[in-house]
Amino acid sequence: MKVYSADNIRNVVVLGHSGSGKTTLMEAALNVTGITTRMGKVDEGNTISDYEAEEIRRRVSINASMIPIEWKDCKINFIDTPGFFDFAGEVKQALAVADLALILVSAKSGIEVGTEKAWEMATEAGIPKMIFVNNMDDENADFDRVVESMKDLFGKSIAPLQVPYKENGKFTGFVNAIKKEGRQFDASGQTQNGPIPSGMEDQVELMHSMIVEAVAETDEALMEKFFEDEPFTIDEIENGVKAGLLDSSVTPVFCGSATQTMGVRVLMDSIIRFAHGPNEFNPESKGINPKDGSEISFKCENGAQFSAFVFKTIADPYVGRLSLIKIMSGTLKKDLQLYNSKKDSSEKCGQISVMRGKEQIGVTELNAGDIGAIAKLSSAETMDTLCSKENPIQYADIVLPPSLMSMAVAPKTKGDEDKISQAFAKLLDEDKTLKFEVNPETKQSIVSGVGDSHLDVLVNKLKNKYKLEIELTDPIVPLREMIKGKIRVQGKYKKQSGGSGQYGDVHMEFEPSGDLTTSYVFEEKIFGGSVPRQYFPAVEKGIQESVKAGPLAGYPVVGLKAILVDGSYHAVDSSELAFKLAASLAFKDGFMKSKPTLLEPIAKVVVTVPDDYTGDVMGDMNKRRGRILGMEKNGTKQAIAAEVPMMEMFKYPTDLRSMTQGRGEFTMEFERYDEAPKDVQDKIVAQRKAEAEKE
Question: What are phi and psi for residue 311, nearest 5 degrees?
Fold first, then answer.
């Protein structure tokens, strides 16, 4: 593959609802450019993009996949992304290095949730958008209906540059609305010039005038020309579309059929004509100087200081580690000394390649704006910056979707615990939306992902890649125990077994401390030396060890005030151990007589949904024992704030998606501990008792 300069590079992220034809479009592009002689099919599991075992098995994309195409002296770096919401992290990573978002919409299904999400994410990322209406060969395809719904939902920027037509009920061509010229598809999907079909003249004229009006707003000179009713040249209109695409005032719409390769060549021509190279879209990449935190920027040109951003990592147990990078400035060559500004480490650049699916195509160098891969970098991780040590820069991290679906992990085979940690270390390299930790309190290994499908893919990856079988279960919710009453009790430990014995006697008062952030407060109010001062630390230690597991259900105790008020000792038999054990006996007796109760963790949850779903979401929150705090308008959506017990939120990512057809999002963070209802407490206490008896 040739080396290209930024002027002749287009970095295009391909977005859309799952099943809209993104991967098939990539196959079509590979086929019409002669890279492949036969188009792969998703159903047959032989596409270039979807090469992982899980993608082939599920027949959906799971990972973002690079598909570079050489077309008319330019290079288009397509990034095929998953349409399923659980893998939105892959989309975010692709958006971080793209200069154009190509959104696919089915001419049959129309605007779907994934289309809305794609539009929102591209808008949030601040990159221009282009739309390809796919499946025009379907008998139920309705281009006009799709365009109208896009205008209603996405606004006046929607600008169809093509007007499709049918002959005998079949999609056979379109009219170029800029040039007002007909185009007919031949058997191979290529276009031939032809007349505008009879009866379409008025529709074409209307489309042309709409494009002219949109273009006029991109330039003052064109606006003046527009008001004076002077006709625009083709170049003026096309340049206006290009300018409007850059500032998002124009969203060009094209049509075709990926399965029949109809419109694919025209689409690639249009990407080259209207989309901007990385040096035009983002001429200067802003970052911070890691030495002093000041803001700096590097120009997207070959002569600038070298810098690259690692946007994705592939960690294959057989192939090794590949760091996918975008060259932000300068030129990358083999053996260049790379400084990792985030890790403060250096290493030499190894083999440079361009990825096409899983294939590595070796190249001698990569210029500013291009996307490629470096093999076997030991320190580089996703979101690291590579640059020169003399002129360091650090680019901002990618904001990934939160990992709010948490499950406990356990190996099916005993003794595989160490293997789990090793496998997860590699998987976390690849997927930054996965989180893995060992809960210090429950001792459970906890994995968190974006949703249930995300975690299901994880289970299968561990099985297929690392020969490791695991089970996922609901994690133990870390509850707390406290008392609501006040009591005075005696704890006496006395043991005689020949020779010196053990004797410790304490009178303790227990009451709530009022502070649930600390486990206990210890005080002593001893008068007359009934308990010698040297035993006070032993008494506190007895309390300290006892509060780790309360007598009610074995959970840590919080909010306890323990006061040593009286006791007795033996001049020979008393010891620190005896007083520690006496305090433990007093604690167990007193705790169960002081109105013990269980506390559960409460989360602050903010659910953002379109207005139509607010009733369903609020009703569901009530079923989860949630308390609605309020609602706030957030653009076109409502943000519903609530406090909900965390034990009711295990499956919420999946449930919210079902309730809102994928349109809902939420955030969740721990707020405080609160008393659990009696029926919940009784159930937990019984369950813990049964578990203890079983052990």
Answer: -100, -10
Token duo for residue 337? 């000394």
Unique residue bearing structure tokens 């323990």 = 562
Residue 125: phi and psi, rounded to 5, are: -75, -15
Answer for the pair 208, 159: CB distance below 8 angstroms, yes or no. no
Largest pairwise CA distance in the chain:
117
C-beta atoms surrounding 678 within 10 Å: 10
Radius of gyration of the chain (CA): 33
- Residue 683 CB contacts under 8 Å (≥ 6 apart), including other chains: none
Q: How far apart are CA 621 and CA 432, in angstroms?
A: 29
pLDDT of residue 7: 95
For the structural domain made of 405-473, what CATH number should be given?
3.30.70.870
Indicate the CATH number for domain 6-281: 3.40.50.300
Check if the beta carbon of residue 287 is closer than 8 Å to that of residue 57: no
CB 196 within 8 A of CB 175: yes
Residue ranges covered by each domain of the chain: 6-281, 284-387, 405-473, 480-593, 598-680
Residue 495 main-chain phi, psi, to 5 deg = -145, 130
Residue written as tokens 């094209």?
A: 254
Note whether 661 and 654 are within 8 A (CB). no
Terminal Cα-to-Cα distance of the chain (whole angstroms): 64
Tokens coding 48 = 């270039």
Are 262 and 189 in contact by the 8 Å Cβ rule? The answer is yes
Contact status, residue 121 vs residue 32, Cβ threshold 8 Å: no
Which alpha helices (H) appear in 96-160, and where do they start and end? 113-125, 143-154
> Is 598-680 the same fold as 405-473?
yes
The residues facing 491 across adjacent strands are 506
CA 641, distance to chain mean position in Å, is 22
- CA–CA distances in Å: residue 178 to residues 234, 244, 257: 7, 14, 21
d(C-alpha 214, C-alpha 212), whole Å: 5
Helices 113-125 and 88-95: crossing angle in degrees, nearest 10, is 40
Rounded to whole angstroms, the Cα distance separating 624 from 270 reads 51
Residue 694 backbone phi and psi in degrees, to 5: -65, -40
Q: Are 173 and 194 in contact (CB under 8 A)?
A: yes
CATH architecture of 598-680: 2-Layer Sandwich (3.30)
Q: Are 631 and 609 in contact (CB under 8 A)?
A: no
Cα 664 from Cα 323, distance rounded (Å): 33
Provide CB contacts within 8 A for 424, sequence distance 6+: 434, 436, 447
Q: What is the pLDDT of residues 27-42, one digit of tens each?
A: 999 999 999 999 999 9
Q: What's the whole-number mean pLDDT along residues 237-245? A: 94
pLDDT for residue 498 is more than 80: no
Element (DSSP H or E) covering residue 455: helix 452-466
The answer to whether residues 328 and 300 touch, using CB atoms and an 8 Å cutoff, is: yes
**575 CA to centre of own chain:** 58
**Whether the Cβ atoms of residue 258 and residue 29 lie closer than 8 Å to each other:** no
Q: How far apart are CA 488 and CA 508, in angstroms?
A: 6
Q: What is the pLDDT of residues 150-205, one digit of tens each?
A: 999 999 999 999 999 999 889 999 999 999 999 999 988 899 998 899 889 999 99
Residue type, 230: E
- Strand 365-366, strand 332-333: pairing: antiparallel
Contact present, 461 and 420 (Cβ < 8 Å): no
The CATH number of domain 480-593 is 3.40.50.720: no
Which single residue is written with the structure tokens 């609602």? 631
